[in-house]
Design a protein that fits this description.
Elements lengths: L6 H9 L3 H11 L16 H8 L3 E5 L5 E5 L1 H11 L12 H9 L23 E10 L4 E4 L3 E8 L5 E5 L11 E6 L11 E5 L2 E7 L1 H14 L4 E2 L5 E3 L2 E5 L13 E3 L5 E7 L9 E4 L3 E4 L11 E3 L9 H9 L7 E3 L16 E8 L2 E8 L2 E2 L9 H12 L3 E2 L8 E5 L22 E3 L2 E9 L7 E5 L5 E2 L1 H5 L7 H16 L9 E5 L4 E5 H13 L3 E5 L2 E5 L5 E7 L2 H55 L11 E6 L4 E6 L8 H17 L3 E5 L2 E8 L2 H19 L38 H7 L6 E5 L2 E6 L2 H14 L10 E4 L13 H5 L4 H7 L1
Antiparallel strand pairs: 1-2, 3-4, 3-5, 3-7, 5-6, 8-9, 8-12, 10-11, 11-12, 13-14, 14-15, 15-16, 17-18, 19-20, 20-21, 20-23, 22-23, 24-25, 25-26, 26-27, 28-29, 28-32, 30-31, 31-32, 33-34, 35-36, 37-38, 37-39
Helix pairs in contact: 2-3, 10-11, 12-14, 12-16, 15-16
Length: 830
């Protein structure tokens, strides 16, 4: 039997033991029970705990099944080294090795012994961990779980152990308790997917964005509250869970599988229905909505293919035909599909079906309600003509069809055959069709208003159906992007006229003022007029724009190089003064408008928060009564807990009140972002999908106040924002990012620590601080404009402020770089 340890190793162990530990070890060796001597010295603290941690004693059971602590083989080796007495033989009882194996499992073979893990690789100094303590119940001889708390790794000892500093001032733990450490999730651990929010097992909200959950995690870490992330990626704190939505690949079935539902009917699987905790899984089937699944259901994996039978899906002629018919409706086929008498879900199939006939020849059928149709079939028979037309446009040779034909016979073009010159293949199949203004239309083969009426055309851009004349005359609007593209194309064509060609600057006279714009600015201005339905007419070297009722709007004409130079020289000083004044006024007006809008929006948020708290039974502070108080300015909505005299609570009392308020608001999908002063001030953040509604209501109230009227929270705004494009990035505080801003303040607002601020910096240091990075960016931009500093070399810049040292940038904090090491770290390094 190999030695437990070498004499040199035993000597090192003895040097690291105190005199009290050596006395205890000799006492254990003199116990009459010999090698299975039981120790009655507590649950692992003090001297006894030190022996257990060094592997000199361990827990096991004797022949009677009595559990206790016994000297380990390494402990007997140390005793033998100290006293010279050998380990006594076991008489009538199991040996210590067997008892330890029963308590901790059998020993692994030598080649399967797990490698030792260095604790330093698991946790780093100053890393926050979730501590799960357990205290020893000596009467029942069991470990009792204690309340979890958040700790911080502060020091590693020489033998690989660590110390944990408790961060929360309210939690306490027994001295003899054993602890288990778990990593505390960070914002980077949040699954990048929408989350569902559950409170006590009940789903309260669906589709919360990942940025919202990251903010919740950031707040929990700031509050030093213990929470965890389960094996499914859900963030769990007390009875609340933020569960990431399950991706489609986790579905037990695949689209097209034939499954048996709870009513005994076999249907085709499409997707999994949203999961409801505590209820069986449901599926979405073709033609039947959501259905329960039969018990022990096994999917019948019927192979399916689009546009052909499964065995023909890889045939080269079929692949080529599908490329030629790209964009048309395709039928999903299985081997058991009967195109003459379809049953069940087969009757929902619609589209083309391709059959290879050899030597580059294919037969293409059209299915309606799962059945093939003839060419003379009322309404749907024209689909075969559409298929033939598409093949001809792609260079295929199509055989002549009869009235009774049920398919189109087409011959694949040879590799060296050229496409017909009069019918070139389009470069963009997704926009195939005739150009009709912004539309790209194609004949559907169906009548628009019943038999013998005009053909219906379909636009591949906006998916609208109308007659050819309606599309061409502009009576049908296309998508906004297509309309803008068409208007810009027309504007560029007008400015490329023979009279205007080659001009780089244009003079625009709208009746109120005359200004010169470069070609790009003139195109943009003309595009806006055309997009709003203005008409154009030509005069001598001048383009005039007017409304549909012939009201003159503006005139555009080119400017020669000499005219540009003369006018610029004459207007240079006055223009510079005017531009400087206008920019200063616009900047100030913009800031005033943003602050007024933010204040109105925050007032709406405050009213909704008060309604939620009152509904949950919390009381608002009044004279002589304690409760919550909400303060509002244009920066944030603050939530406070105050006593009967109106003084803010502090310490444990404040924690108790604010925890109750926070739980209520988080149950409604909100979250609380704590300010730099910790619990003494907190900012409410509304659900992301409700921000737009709050902004609209706030703007309605602000406009009503400016006009001298009063608009209630339930009234419709006088000027609704339904037509406003909210496409610009907006931060979690509800502020929009400037279109030309490239510093990403919105992302900084989302990622920054809850108690971190954004500051405006110059060469002299921090000039101002804001809770919102977008506001800091706007303030830096305003100061640069006032100082007439160029954008490529700004005098004022914004950055996040270091959380440890105020007036310092977080990304370049000089104090953090010069901080000395802790004394304990220096000792450890020595």
């Amino acid at each position: 039997m190999p030695a437990i340890a070498t004499p040199e190793e035993i000597q090192q162990i003895v040097k690291g033991m105190s005199e009290r530990m050596l006395t205890y070890l000799r006492f254990y060796a003199k116990n009459p029970q010999g090698s299975i001597a039981r120790t009655n010295l507590g649950n692992g603290g003090g001297t006894h705990g030190a022996l257990v941690r060094r592997g000199l004693a361990g827990q096991g059971a004797d022949g009677r099944g009595y559990r206790g602590y016994f000297l380990a083989p390494l402990g007997w080796a140390v005793v033998e080294h100290l006293t010279g007495s050998h380990r006594p033989a076991d008489t009538g009882r199991r040996a210590l090795d067997e008892a330890l194996n029963e308590a901790y499992g059998a020993d692994l073979p030598a080649d399967e012994t797990p490698a030792e893990v260095d604790v330093r690789t698991l946790y780093a100094p100053r890393e926050r961990v979730r501590v799960a303590p357990q205290s020893w119940d000596a009467f029942n001889k069991v470990y009792v779980p204690q309340p979890e708390y958040v700790g911080e790794i502060v020091h590693y000892t020489r033998n690989g152990q660590y110390r944990v500093r408790e961060l929360h001032h309210d939690t306490t733990c027994d001295y003899d308790a054993k602890t288990e450490l778990f990593k505390l999730p960070t914002i980077d651990d949040v699954v990048d997917a929408p989350h569902d929010f559950y409170d006590a097992g009940n789903r309260k909200h669906e589709g919360l964005p990942a940025s919202h959950v990251r903010k919740v995690v950031s707040n929990l870490r700031f509050q030093k509250k213990p929470f965890r992330q389960d094996e499914h990626g859900a963030i769990c704190v007390e009875d609340r869970r933020y569960v990431p939505q399950r991706p489609a690949e986790e579905a037990p079935f695949q689209p097209g599988d034939r499954i048996v539902c709870a009513d005994g009917i076999t249907r085709t699987f499409k997707a999994m229905a949203p999961h409801i905790p505590g209820e069986p899984a449901r599926v979405i089937v073709e033609g039947g909505g959501a259905q329960w699944i039969a018990e022990d259901c096994r999917p019948a994996r019927t192979p399916a293919a689009e546009g052909s039978l499964p065995e023909d899906a890889t045939h080269p002629d079929v692949v080529a035909a599908r490329e030629a018919l790209a964009g048309l409706a395709v039928a999903t086929m299985t081997d058991h599909h009967d195109v003459h008498e379809p049953e069940g879900d087969e009757q929902l199939v619609r589209g083309y079906l391709i059959e290879p006939r050899g030597h580059g020849r294919v037969a293409v059928y059209w299915l309606e309600s799962g059945k093939t149709i003839r060419r003379d079939t009322f309404l749907h028979g024209a689909a075969l003509d559409c298929l033939a037309d598409r093949f001809q446009r792609r260079g295929w040779r199509v055989e002549r069809m009869l009235r009774s034909s049920v398919c189109v016979f087409a011959h694949r073009p040879s590799a060296d055959a050229e496409a017909p010159a009069e019918l070139p293949a389009p470069q963009q199949p997704e926009e195939d069709g005739i150009a009709a203004g912004p539309h790209r239309i194609a004949n559907t083969g169906e009548n628009i208003d019943g038999p013998y009426s005009a053909y219906a055309f379909a636009c591949s851009r906006c998916d609208k159906h109308a007659t050819y004349s309606d599309f061409w005359n502009g009576r049908v609007r296309c998508t906004r992007s297509a309309e803008r593209e068409w208007a810009q194309e027309r504007a560029e064509g007008l400015l490329n006229d023979v009279t205007f060609k080659g001009a780089s600057t244009f003079e625009i006279n709208d009746g109120d003022r005359v200004e010169q714009r470069p070609r790009a600015g003139a195109v943009q201005y003309l595009t806006l007029l055309l997009l709003n339905g203005c008409a154009h007419s030509w005069y001598t070297a001048e383009l005039r724009m007017s409304t549909k009722h012939d009201r003159h709007i503006a005139s555009i004409k080119p400017v020669t190089v000499q005219e540009q130079h003369d006018r610029a020289e004459a207007e240079r000083p006055a223009e510079a003064d005017r531009i400087r004044t206008e920019r200063a006024e616009e900047a100030r007006a913009h800031i005033d408008k943003v602050e007024a809008q933010a204040l109105a929006t925050n007032q709406v948020i405050a009213e909704r928060a008060a309604a939620l708290l009152n509904e949950a039974g919390h009381t608002e502070h009044t004279e002589g009564h304690y409760g919550y108080r909400i303060r509002v300015n244009h920066l944030a909505v603050g939530l406070y807990a105050v006593d009967e005299e109106g003084q803010e609570y502090t310490g444990h009392t404040l924690d108790t009140f604010l925890d109750g308020y926070t739980a209520t608001l988080e149950g409604a999908g909100w979250y609380v972002e704590y300010s730099k002063t910790g619990y003494h001030g907190s900012c409410l953040a509304i659900l992301p999908n409700d921000v737009e509604e709050a902004v609209r209501e706030g703007k309605s109230r602000r406009e009503a106040a400016e006009q001298g009227g009063v608009s209630g929270p339930g009234e419709s705004p006088a000027n609704p924002l339904d037509t406003v494009d909210f496409g610009e990035p907006r931060c979690v505080h509800g502020f929009y990012e400037r279109p030309e801003d490239r510093t990403n303040p919105v992302k900084a607002c989302e990622r920054k620590h809850p108690n971190q601020s954004a500051g405006v910096f110059s060469d002299e240091g921090c000039m101002d601080a804001f809770d919102c990075a977008v506001q800091a960016s706007d303030e830096a931009h305003r100061l640069n404009k006032e100082e007439e500093h160029p954008a490529d070399d700004p005098l004022y810049m914004w950055a996040l402020i270091c959380t440890e040292h105020e007036e310092q940038r977080a990304d370049a904090c000089e104090d953090c770089a010069e901080e000395p090491q802790d004394e304990e770290d220096e000792e450890e390094a020595e």
